[in-house]
Amino acid sequence: MSKKMKKESPTGEEIPAQNEIKKFFFGENWDDKQFVLRMLKFLYGKKEENDLLEKFRSEIDSIIKILQVEISIIKTKIAESTEELEDLTNRENEYTHQLNLWKSADIETIIEYLKNVYEDNQTAYDLYIKQLNFILENKNSKVKNIVIYEAPPCVGSYILTCTGGEYSKISTYWKPIEAVLNTFDNEQSPSKNMAENKIGFIDLTLVPLPLKQIREEWSTLDKFKIDGKQLPVWLFQWAFEDFIEKINCNIDKDPLIAIGMPNKTSVSIFDYYALSSNPSDKTIQGVNININETNECTKKRFDEKGLNKVNLRLYKSNVTSGMGFPIGLLMKVALEQNIKKRE
């Protein structure tokens, strides 16, 4: 495929080349505002900037309401106790800033915000990788367990920047963090927690895009099927390859995998890796993607279209609950509590 955006969808929209999409999700070319804007218009299915802004706000309408509740909870906590006062006050200020930004900012301001948060997320991820590599090298070990999430939230706290302190539990975004802490029974920060337990942690992207309904479109619409794979499948593959490279290939060829992203994103990933009959579709750089094991004897298939075509609950690697959050109990099942067993 040409590197230029020449391919068109059935509706006449230009579809970016695979390499352009990868650059966008890896934070490259974000200084080129026109490139970023073009990519966002494609990803959110909007041609005009005003329509794109409205789509953003519809995607995060529920998140804005959550933010308002979060701020109210924080104010109550501040009034009740002086403990962790500085942390709580900083969080209140940050949430208030995020709330105002998503409610009223123009598209250029939002792009700059996404770029800055991505860079902060990348810094936190690089620190985790540094900690993990130090432990792998000193113990002459390999990553045998992998936790895969979707992306840092566009508002709230990124799991790798969380301290793991008790005050964090006031946040709605505690759920993915809590799942990690509960799985490994360790009250350190999630970053140190996973590094010291030699847990591979992967986000499909570190770009904190507002995601809600758009997840289903990425997983099901033909316009988001790039070179035979739905967009989330590409994100999964690219992120996995990047992780393998970052840890210098110190990974078991048959790692246990816990996928803790919303089902609307993971459905196309399970479709591709768990259901394909082609062995070459089940490996990434020599690492087997074993996510087809079920918790029941029979895989149930549905006749309905879209997201109901796979019963994801049956997959052992799917650790997302019906509420849309990963939970520690399912993560323990997926990883067979084998942190000690496989050392």
Write up what this structure looks like.
This protein is mainly alpha-helical and 343 residues long. Helix content is 48%, strand content 10%. The protein is built from 12 helices and 9 strands. The strands form 4 sheets. A 3-stranded parallel beta sheet has the order 4-3-7, with helices on both faces. The protein has a two-stranded antiparallel ribbon with strand order 1-2. A hairpin with a 2-residue loop joins strand 5 and strand 6. The N and C termini lie far apart (44 Å).
| Mass-distribution shape | globular
* Average of the residue pLDDT scores: 81
Distance between the termini: 44 Å
Structural class: mainly alpha
Q: How many helices?
A: 12
Biggest sheet character? 3 strands, parallel
Percent in strands: 5-15%
Poorly predicted regions: 1-6, 296-310, 339-343
- Radius of gyration from the CA trace? 20 Å
Number of strands: 9
Order of helices and strands: EEHHHHHHEHHEHEEHEHEEH
* Spatial order of the strands forming the largest sheet: 4-3-7
Q: Roughly how much helix do the residues carry, as a percent range?
A: 40-55%
Notable characteristics:
343 residues, mainly alpha, two-stranded antiparallel sheet, 12 helices, 9 strands, disordered N terminus, disordered C terminus
